Amino acid sequence: MIIGTAGHIDHGKTSLVRALTGVDTDRLKEEKARGISIDLGFAYLPAPDGTVLGFVDVPGHEKFIHNMLAGATGIDFVLLVVAADDGIMPQTLEHLSIVHLLGIERGIVALTKSDRANASRRAEVTADIARTLAGTELSGSDIVPISSVTGEGVEKLRSRLFETARMLGARAAQGRFRLAVDRSFVLAGAGTVVTGTVLSGSVAVGDRVAVSPSGLTARVRSIHAQNQPAKQGRAGDRCALNLVGEGVSKDAILRGDMVVDPDLHASADRIDASLRLLAAEPKPVTQWMPVRLHHAAAEVGARVVLLGDAPIPPGGEARVQLVLEKSIAATAGDRFVLRDTTAQRTIGGGRFLDLRAPARKRRTPERLAQLEAHALADPEQALVALLDRTPYFVELAVFARDRALAAGEIEQVVDRIAAVRVPAARGLIALSAAHWLRLKRGLLATLADFHAENPDLPGMGMERLRLKLELRLPAPAFRSVLQGLARAGEVALEGAWVRLAGHEVRLTAADESAWEKIHPLLAGGERFRPPRVRDIAGLLGIPENEMRRLLKLLSRMGKVDEVAHDHFFLRATVGEMVEIAGDVAANSAASQFTAALFRDRLDNGRKVAIQILEFFDRHGVTLRRGDLRRMNKHRLDLFRLHVDETSSPAPIPSGREASPVGRPDFKSGRGREPVFGGFDSHSLPPSPRSAR
Question: What is the crossing angle of helices 533-540 and 544-556, to 10°?
Fold first, then answer.
């Protein structure tokens, strides 16, 4: 258990810790000279059951509140110190407010210097303390009279602390490792040592860690936990870590940094949060108000952006966005405290909600609904709520990282809510089963509508389809979804085109009539040097753009091939030219031939012959070295027709030989199979329109 002191200057906090532990926490020369605590002090007390209690002694002077805040984060139990002769003082109230803002719910009050007060004075101050604590988390806490001079109450207080530590037990070491650095120094013979409270997870000797927000990496050489050598440090321990690595030094790691699991390193400088203003604050919080933000041991300048329509009044609570002067390492749910820029008073505090706050559209109804979900402390409830709000998916790695969840923890959460997992660029994204079904049905219905309106097109562009859907996934995740549906036989993929599995490309009546006129012009004796698009358009009286569109469609159907720009050959003719090239090669030395030999066999011009051979080169039919070419036996059937060429082509499914030559065919084995949390795409109900 970590115990933190709180209270006004010169009320005996350090003397009390010394009476309890035998350790003088004033370690600085100036502290001893002035007789006041300036920086944090640390002490330890072994308990009868073998555990060790850690003490963080904080300064009480108003000028050193920033040091008090650096030590207050991560404590389990507060020891509120009030001198019997002085009673409640300004820093008592400010420290109590900070304890409240940090969410510390357990504590005890030490009525120090009791030897200086008679019974009536003790009773008066005790009643005043009880009234002050009423309505706070410490309401009803025991008040123990203490005298560090006479020893009164010291043993009683020590026993109460032992009993509380036994009842609380060790803090669960869940989540990934985080340690808030409050000291960094060099130890002779060891090197750089950092100390702080472990906020979550655990760390062991030999582990790799990151220093955030700087990103410095290090290895843990040795550990002291609760002032004892240890192999491991865990949540709730005061730890000293001896770190080694390139760039690791006392000056490279500062108070306010976090030593974290490397997967957690992702600093934030724009954070959405809930902010509660202290009732005693004289002024409301207004738009873009400058403040000092205290989080863990870090202190940084910030601006407050109101997400509501009105200033936050004293005692009020609202959602805000904190825009920081520099990045900090934090976790969603962490507590923070705001002070004014003069460091004279504490304004308020609250909890971080979303570490990845947007700079724009931060007040839209959709964004505010997301914040309602982020405000849920339980990860499972938060994930369920986020999946039911736009954009209806969550990047699991980001969600787990920002809540410091271990890999096993996020997997269990996703399994319990039966979410659908889909591979994306950075790990997996999750969707609820209901929204996955909505996505699938919308996708299939959109394709069905597209095919109904465009029967002559082989499919819809992948990106166009993604942008058409109401539930819009990131492009990598959308490709994974399409691959899963293709393996399930519900869609077919051809390069960048997507179609329903049963869709067939058909020519319109007008296009079929035009094709019957075009075909003779590309066949016959001039088939090796057919007219170009412009010439065919002129001969048939069809606009050039329309002619080009139709020939490109016929190319996608596998009826013609665009050998050169605007120069289309019948597929049968291309197949015939492949056979001629093969015969030329077979009758040439070393099975290699020149462009001139091929030109002569076709009785064609050199320019057209070169264009044909370069077309073959592009598709791997021929392999060129210098002026010589040889045939690639593995590609000889690329342009071979499997149906008879006719002037009126029958419908061809746009996934077989009708696929565009030279475009890579989609292979169902490529990519990753979407993981559909407990079920797959085969078991989901099909879209009622997918049978079109």
Answer: 120
pLDDT level of residue 344 (50, 70, 90 thresholds): confident
pLDDT per residue as tens digits for the range 580-590: 999 999 999 99
Specify the DSSP class assigned to residue 593: B
Residue 593 has pLDDT above 50, yes or no: yes
DSSP label of 586? H
Cα of 247 vs its chain's centroid, Å:
27
Beta carbons of 173 and 235 less than 8 angstroms apart: yes
487 Cβ contact list (under 8 Å, min separation 6): 668, 673, 681
Contact call for residues 635 and 620 (beta carbons, < 8 A): yes
Q: Residue 689: helix, strand or coil by DSSP?
A: coil
pTM of the model: 0.78
Residue 406 has pLDDT above 90, yes or no: yes
**At a CB cut-off of 8 Å and minimum separation 6, what does 611 contact?**
563, 564, 567
Tokens of 429: 């994204």
Cβ atoms within 10 Å of 9's Cβ, excluding its own: 18
For residue 420, list its beta bridge partners.
431
Is residue 41 within 8 A of residue 70, CB to CB? The reply is: no
Asked whether 605 and 551 are in contact (CB, 8 A), the reply is no
Strand (E) or helix (H) holding 249: none
Are 202 and 432 spatial neighbours (Cβ–Cβ below 8 Å)?
no
Q: Is the pLDDT of residue 392 over 60?
A: yes
| CA 93 centroid distance within chain | 39
